[in-house]
Structure formats: structure tokens, C-alpha cells
Write a structure and sequence with these properties.
Number of domains of chain A: 2
Low-confidence stretches of chain A: none
Oligomer: homodimer
Mean pLDDT of chain A: 96
Strand content of chain A: 15-25%
Radius of gyration of chain A: 20 Å
CATH class of the largest domain in chain A: Alpha Beta
Largest sheet of chain A: 10 strands, mixed
CATH topology of the largest domain in chain A: Isopropylmalate Dehydrogenase
Helix content of chain A: 40-55%
Structural class of chain A: alpha/beta
Strand order of the largest sheet of chain A: 2-1-3-12-11-4-5-10-8-9
Bound molecules: 3-isopropylmalic acid
CATH architecture of the largest domain in chain A: 3-Layer(aba) Sandwich
């Protein structure tokens, strides 16, 4: 592409700050390639909700659909009741735009502050990606409650899983595994307890596997997967899992790979009918908002995922290389002089 | 009590081996106190299912109900289809005997092989306990599937949560927090997405809190909890959470505290209407079954939980002290001469 038409949702807390640095890097790398970038800001999140009571309107969605991709900072603020923005903005975006592939890479970068004893559990580092289903599972909002606030209250949450929904994400995960050197796919579920959903996932993986004969497949229960993420993260290449398990595993994966400050993600519609959305895994961190303290690296790595998705692969690789170089220098530098959000963005942009 | 009438379920794989050492230690410690121990073996698990097609019968349950407590090894074998023994034996035991409190302590023992860089993330060790709800949540088996095996398959799993079920486990967790020096309770859920169940949990904690004014309460989303379990496990004292989140968090907790080989658990009916059941968190490990390689320490620590539950607190403390002494010696000993299952049991029993 020679132009890129982006929707930008800074959102709440540190969202706008890290997105600004993501855009700085995006402009730097695309300028060199002569790609024209247009951006349109969308006001979504706590501020708008407080001012208007609106979360995500049909008009917002219609407008968002017209862009090539969406860059999102973070949505969420303690002043808004829990669930309102998650179930009013973040999740409706993923669901309405059919972001069935929630892609979350986990790489051990140089100088990463992993809580693991790396020399012992991962002497050669690790590099895996979680393909989290993004439009089904317990996230569908099909729960309810009866007799709320009484001793007879009953509250349910329904996990909905369909052959259609599982197959498309499983096929995407196989394709990603196929494209990687190790070609290994691990299904994570809990099919010994959640037998209906679990067996659907298992049968789907078995049914798609023959299309990818080079990919080796294994299975872990979600509880066992958390053990392996700490004692042997290098065993993983591509993990495919449901929406809730993926939520849990990717935060753990971010932690062991050196923190949520480096974790990027893409909410992808593989059919390309709708724009895909790229966002750091971290939240809005209201405690440090507006102070220039947030690390924009996850947002910048999310820009790299965005560039790759829209077909600007060399630009994506250059951004990743610049981040790697910055992290390498950071790792060997004095920690006593932490850089501001903007300084990190400028340092990475300067390498492009 | 001056006598103890135990049901013993060795089960599958390494189950019978580790239970034998648990009983060795139990006999050694109760003998000194003049407590008479009677045991009755129950044949549950893969072997019986293969021979008779039976899992857990009403007659089994009636007989089990007559005992003071149950000691269980492990249930599960790859020769049995996934879900059959879990949903036919293990979970029906927990559900029928109203084991609403699934108690799982996590202590960093000396010499523990934690994957964490302990000097950095937990220089003073850690010691917390997870109170996992055991009779509700997504474990209730209220799922189903339509059009199985077709492209139109839909599979659901329903998490059921009741005020009755949540309140009893929350109250138990508060009481445990109250009895510990730090008096801290952390609720773990995902109430920003699972709003109905999550808000029931949240409101219940808020409603019970005034009864325990000394206990300080906080909340974490389950994804964030996995981060803290790796970057700052010492922040936890008592965690209370639902059945599925508890399953996931306790395996992770076992990993960071040095492995599932040391993790004990109790399935407790706090009303004492039914016998409670004590079992190591690890599974049947069929790959090493019958070789005397399994570490019986988790089974022995489960015996300590059992003793404490039936009111033999000094005996429980002596078992825990013996395990601690053994682990301390183990930690400083050569790893080149691993002891057999029986040798570990004998070494711990010899200290009593
Ligand atoms: C904020 C929340 C709704 C969201 C999720 O659970 O998916 C977040 O934890 C994430 O992982 O992107
Ligand atoms: C075997 C399985 C049904 C069980 C569970 O999920 O509860 C196990 O993982 C556990 O933690 O005791």
C-alpha cells in the first residue's frame, strides 16, 4: 500500500501518551517508504462516558469500519463502574469487527526484567505467540442473575463456542505455526472438565491438522500450561486457546517475558472484512497517567504488528529491529536515569 | 479424638504409592499420641472403570459418608477418555460431599526448586493459601452441545454461582485470614467481563467483611493475579476465588513455590456434615507409576491438612515440621542420589 488510513483511539490514562509515541514511530518508518499516513481520532472511553453517557455507538462503528486499521491505547478508569467500558467499548469493538484472532506474541527481549531464573529455566530465551480466540467463550455476555442481592441469588455466565468460531481461529493458528521455523502448535483448554467446549476445540484441531502436515500438535490443560509457562516457556511456539484462557495466559506470558510494558497485541479479522485493531496489552494505568512515565514500547510493538498486518512487512521489521536495539541499549544502560515516554519514542524513531 | 476412621482411595498411577507413604507418616504420628487409626480402601479410578464400567456409585458414596475423612492419591489414566473419571469420580466426590472449600496452601519451602529468581522477586519467601470454591462455577457440568460434528456445532459451558455457595466459601476464607498473622484477603475474579458472577462475588465479600474488621481486603482480576504470582508472590496471604480460577491459580502457585510435587490440598465441607477429602494437587503421573520415583511429600502434607481438620493439630504440626526438616536436609544434599518414594516416606516418619 502507498497510503494508510488509520483510526486512532487514545482512550484513557496513559493510552494517549503511548499512542502518540506509536504514531511518532509509525510516521518515521512510513515516511522513509513514501507511504502517506492519515489519522482520525476517535473519542472513546471514560471521558466521553462521563460527558455523554455513551460508550460505543453505531455511528462510531460505521466510521471505524471505513479505516484500514485501528490503533488503540487503553480503555478504562476507576471512576467508571467495572464492566461498563469493557463491555461497552473494548469488547463490542472486538465483537462487532469480528476480531476472532487476538494475537499476542511473547518474546524474551534483551535486558528484559523477567521474574524467572532465566539461566535455569530458559537459558536460550523463548519466543512464542498466543492466538487467543476473541469473539466467543465466556466473553459473549450471555450470563444473567436472578434474585440479585438476596440470599437466593443465582448468577450464571455462559461460554458459547461454535464450530464456525473455533475453526477460523484454529486455522489461523495453524497457518502461523506453519510459517514459523519450529512449526509447533499447542492447544490449551480444560477438556476434562469443560467437556462440551473442550471437545469441540479438540476435534477442530484434529480436523484441521491434516491440512498442515508439517505442524506438530500437542495439548495442555490450562492449569498445566501455567506451570510450563514458568518452568519451561521455551517449549511453546504457537498456543491456540479460548478467549478467557487466552486472557489469563497472555498476562502470565507478558510477566515472564519481562512485563506488560513490552506486550503488544493485535485484534485481527483474518477475513479482512473489518479493520483490525492493535493495542498494547497493558491497561490505562491511571496512577501514572499524564506524567510521561509510561513505557510506550508495547504500543510501538503494536504498531509493528499493524504494519505487518496491512502488508508493510519491511517497515514492521524495521520497527521491531529499532525496538530491539533500543532495549539492548536500555538493558546495558544505567537504570538510574529512566527516560520519559516521549524520550523512548524519540529514541526508537531516531533509529528508523 | 482418640480414633480416626479413614477412607483411603489410592486411585491411579502413582496415587497408591504416595498414599502408602502418607499413611506411614499418619500411623507414625498418631501412634505416639495413642490415636487408633482404622482405614478402609476404596477402589475408584481407571482400573475399576475398565473392569466394571463403574465410576462412583451411590453405594460408594454412602459408604464414604461413614468415615471421618478421606485420603485420596490421584485419579486419572490416559487409557480412559478425557472427562470420564474427572466428571465421574473426582468432581462427584467434591460435589456430593459438599466440599465447597478447596484449600491449597503455597509455601516456599527450603531448597524448593522454584523457577522464579527468588532473590529478586521474593527475597523473604512467601506463604499464602488459596481458598478455591469447589462445588460451583464452570465445574457444575451444566453445558451442552448441539449439532455435534457439523459445521453448525455450538457448545456451551455454564458457570453457576449462588449467594449460598459463594457466601460459605467467602466466610471460610475470611476466618482463615483472620487466624493468620497478616490477616489479608484477596478476592480474585474477572468482574469486568463476567459481570454477573463477578459482582455476586464482590458484593458477597463486601457483605461479609464487616464481620471480620481486622481483615484487610483487596481485589485482583485473574489475569493480573497471574502476574503478581510471578513478580511478587509475597503480596498474597489468603486468596479466595472461584472453582476454575482457583484451579488455574493453584497450579501456578504450586509451580512458583517449587513444584506440584509439594502441593497439598484439602476438599473441605466446613459444615462437617460430610467427611472432607485430602489429596496431593499432582495427578496420577502414569509415566513414572510403579517405579518408586514419585515424591510423596504432597501426599504427606495432605495428611497434615487432614490431621488439622479432624482436630489433631499438634500431630499436624509435627508432620509439617518433619517435612520441613526433611526438605531442608534434601535442599543441602547431593541431588545425584535421589531417594525412592518409600525412602522419603520413611525418612519423614522417622522424624516423628
Ligand atoms: C480489559 C479486559 C476486558 C481485557 C480482556 O479481558 O480481554 C484485557 O484484560 C485484555 O486482555 O485485553
Ligand atoms: C483433574 C481435574 C478435574 C482437577 C480440577 O480441575 O479440579 C485438578 O486439576 C485439580 O486441580 O484438582
Amino acid at each position: 500500500p502507498t497510503s494508510l488510513d488509520l483510526a486512532v483511539v487514545g482512550g484513557d490514562g496513559i493510552g494517549p501518551e503511548v499512542v502518540a509515541e506509536g504514531l511518532r514511530v509509525l510516521r518515521a518508518v512510513t515516511e522513509a517508504d513514501g507511504v502517506e499516513v492519515r489519522t482520525t481520532d476517535y473519542d472513546l472511553g471514560a471521558q466521553r462516558w462521563h460527558a455523554t453517557g455513551e460508550t460505543l455507538t453505531d455511528a462510531d462503528l460505521d466510521a471505524l469500519r471505513g479505516h484500514d486499521a485501528i490503533l488503540l491505547g487503553a480503555i478504562g478508569d476507576p471512576s467508571v463502574p467495572s464492566g461498563v467500558l469493557e463491555r461497552g467499548v473494548l469488547l463490542p469493538l472486538r465483537f462487532a469487527l469480528d476480531h476472532c484472532v487476538n494475537l499476542r506474541p511473547s518474546t524474551l527481549f534483551p535486558g528484559a526484567q523477567s521474574p524467572l531464573d532465566l539461566a535455569r529455566v530458559a537459558p536460550d530465551g523463548f519466543d512464542f505467540v498466543v492466538v487467543r480466540e476473541g469473539t466467543e467463550g465466556p466473553y459473549v455476555g450471555n450470563g444473567g442473575a436472578l434474585r440479585v442481592g438476596t440470599p437466593h441469588e443465582i448468577a450464571t455466565e455462559v461460554s458459547v463456542n461454535t464450530a464456525f468460531g473455533v475453526e477460523r481461529v484454529v486455522r489461523d493458528a495453524f497457518a502461523r505455526a506453519q510459517a514459523r521455523p519450529r512449526k509447533k502448535l499447542t492447544l490449551v483448554h480444560k477438556h476434562n472438565v469443560l467437556v462440551h467446549a473442550g471437545h469441540l476445540w479438540r476435534r477442530t484441531v484434529e480436523a484441521v491438522a491434516p491440512e498442515f502436515p508439517e505442524v506438530s500438535v500437542d495439548y495442555l490443560h490450562v492449569d498445566a500450561a501455567t506451570i510450563f509457562l514458568t518452568v519451561d516457556p521455551a517449549r511453546f511456539d504457537v498456543i491456540v486457546t479460548d478467549n478467557l484462557f487466552g486472557d489469563i495466559l497472555t498476562d502470565l506470558a507478558a510477566a515472564v517475558s519481562g512485563g506488560i510494558g513490552l506486550a503488544a497485541s493485535g485484534n485481527i479479522d483474518p477475513s479482512r472484512t473489518n479493520p483490525s485493531m492493535f493495542e498494547p496489552v497493558h491497561g490505562s494505568a491511571p496512577d501514572i497517567a499524564g506524567q510521561g512515565k509510561a513505557d510506550p514500547t508495547a504500543a510501538i510493538l503494536s504498531v509493528a504488528l499493524l504494519l505487518r498486518h496491512v502488508g508493510l512487512v519491511p517497515a514492521a521489521e524495521r520497527v521491531e529491529a529499532a525496538v530491539l536495539a533500543d532495549l539492548t541499549e536500555r538493558g546495558s544502560a544505567q537504570r538510574s536515569t529512566p527516560r520519559s515516554t516521549q524520550e523512548v519514542g524519540e529514541a526508537i524513531a531516531a533509529r528508523l
